[in-house]
Design goal:
The chain is an alpha/beta fold. The chain folds into two domains: 252 residues, Rossmann fold (3-Layer(aba) Sandwich); 194 residues, Nucleotidyltransferase, domain 5, CATH 3.30.420.240. 35% of the residues lie in helices and 15% in strands. The protein has 19 helices and 16 strands. The model has no long low-confidence stretch (mean pLDDT 87).
């Protein structure tokens, strides 16, 4: 549909009031040179499907004297980068510009998501909208500017960060006899209370009520999950699933790498690619097949590979302090040491003795909690050690180019360990395997990997990952190769001195 000329704009907007797909084709400069969409011809198939269903529902419930009275509820779970934010922008602009005195709210999982992704995308499309002169777009709202001040209050859609302590913005959505637009972006992380408050407000009769929710299906609990078929509210929502591979502009090579790295049926791929809910609330971090291969792999030790020792300090009585040596690709040949009930002084002594015996190139110690005491005592023994703070900012890069982001250093070290497992060798030990496979993770609001904490794992009855934490620490910093690392060949003494008690100067008798 060609964009209408300016004199017929108002008339045309009225014509597409019940046709959001026709509006999108006519309201933006598809294919026009020197525009952000000069290479685009229109919405993707899945986007057009959502717009078509909204229009069909509106037309089915519309008559001269009344408008649809039952809310149109569209839920879309999708993989990464499929164009959710663009569709959100189209629905908002169509909704407010084709029905006088439309009211609505837009929220997301976080205020950051709203301000940095959802709202900027709306601004991009608003800047290309042929009717933008009729409306005002601000940092927090879009509203009609051609009437009175009162019109600005009753003909608007607002960006509203949610708060469980303040739900009034969602409770006051009544707009009898007109149109209401509600958008939830990244809906999987929006609390049930906000859903319930919104649902209670959408009860106006003879009112066009359009409630659309979008998100990556990161959780298998909550109201977003219950919108899916078989869920408690599945009968009231049209549920749509979008696979990233079916969208023209997604990065297919990146998706291929994810599938290769995680596995086609992994929870990561289910959520980020297929738009499917995970089997569990959190996703397994390590692949069982790769763990087993690392346990059976033949050891090939590079004599020049640096030798690192990771030290995990026990925090509770049932936990163990672990000293885990790793020389390059070999974390099997040199046995790890496990202790229970050692105080910080005793553990520092054990660490010093192992580092001295193995001629370790680097010693990494978990400095959180009581671990700081072990670090201090090792330094009193003149042993140079690196203090590792698991919760600090991640400094480990995405070597494989998978696009992974890590929320903190612990997650980054685990990511490096997972990459290393593809070619490394670890002990054939069922307890170690159980620890590795018990590690789970979720994604935070910035799509960063965050691991389930050791304390939470233990409350859930899982084994404490003491050994894995110690092994992961050996990846905290890169270590340079050395000619004779880890006890291979003659070594320099740990302390050098110019004093030689056996020199002739000191062996000759002193004259009387």
């Amino acid at each position: 549909m060609l964009a209408p000329s300016q004199p017929t704009l108002t008339e045309w907007l009225g014509e597409v009031s019940l046709d959001p797909l026709g509006f999108v084709y006519g309201a933006f400069p598809w294919g026009e040179p020197d525009t952000p969409i000069e290479k685009d011809e229109g919405p993707e198939d899945w986007q057009a499907g959502v717009l078509t269903r909204i229009g069909e529902r509106l037309r089915a419930g519309y008559s001269v004297d009344t408008v649809i009275s039952m809310a149109i509820q569209e839920a879309t779970a999708s993989g990464h980068g499929v164009g959710k934010s663009a569709l959100v922008a189209w629905i908002i602009i169509w909704g407010i510009s084709t029905f006088p005195h439309t009211r609505g709210v837009v929220t997301a999982n976080t205020e950051t998501q709203l301000k940095t992704k959802t709202w900027p995308e709306l601004g991009k499309w608003f800047s290309m909208f042929i009717g933008k002169a009729m409306f005002e777009f601000t940092a927090t709202a879009i509203f009609y500017k051609g009437g009175t001040i009162e019109d600005e209050k009753t003909w608007r859609i607002d960006m509203v960060p949610w708060s469980e302590r303040n739900t009034e913005a969602f409770a006051g959505l009544h707009n009898q006899g007109r149109r209401i637009i509600v958008i939830f972006d990244e809906a999987s992380a929006i609390p049930d209370l906000i859903w319930e408050t919104t649902e209670g407000a959408l009860t106006d009769a003879n009112t066009q009520i359009i409630w659309c929710v979008f998100g990556n299906p990161t959780r298998n609990t909550g109201r977003f999950r219950e919108c899916a078929p078989g869920g408690r509210f599945g009968a009231y929502w049209h549920f749509n699933k979008v696979d990233s591979r079916t969208v023209s502009f997604t990065n297919k090579e990146q998706i291929r790498r994810w599938i290769e790295a995680y596995g086609d049926d992994s929870d990561f791929v289910r959520i980020r690619v297929k738009g499917e809910f995970p089997r569990t609330g959190e996703m397994e971090f390590f692949n069982a097949a790769e763990v087993e291969e690392a346990m059976l792999r033949e050891v090939h030790t590079d004599p020049s590979a640096p030798l690192a020792i990771g030290v995990d300090v026990a925090r509770f009585g049932v936990n163990s302090s672990v000293l885990f040596p790793r020389k390059g690709r070999d974390a099997r040949s040199i046995h790890r040491e496990r202790y229970q009930g050692l105080d910080t002084v005793a553990l520092a002594t054990k660490t010093f003795e192992l580092a001295d015996r193995l001629h370790a190139d680097a010693v990494f110690i978990d400095g959180g909690g009581v671990g700081g005491g072990v670090v201090d005592n090792c330094r009193r023994l003149r042993l140079f050690v690196y203090e590792v703070l698991f919760g600090s900012k991640n400094t480990i890069s995405d070597i494989d180019g998978l696009g992974e982001k890590f929320a903190n250093l612990r997650a980054g070290m685990y990511g490096a360990l997972r990459r290393w497992l593809k070619t490394g060798a670890i002990p054939f030990d069922q307890d170690l395997k159980a620890q590795l496979l018990s590690i789970t993770y979720t994604l935070n609001n910035r799509d960063e990997i965050i691991l389930t904490s050791k304390e939470v794992m233990m409350r859930e009855g899982k084994p404490s990952p003491d050994d894995v934490d110690a092994l992961a620490e050996t990846f905290a910093l890169p270590i340079a190769k050395a000619a004779h690392s880890g006890g291979e060949g003659p070594q320099k003494p740990m302390v050098e001195s110019e004093y030689d008690p056996y020199s002739r100067e000191w062996m000759e008798p002193v004259a009387a």
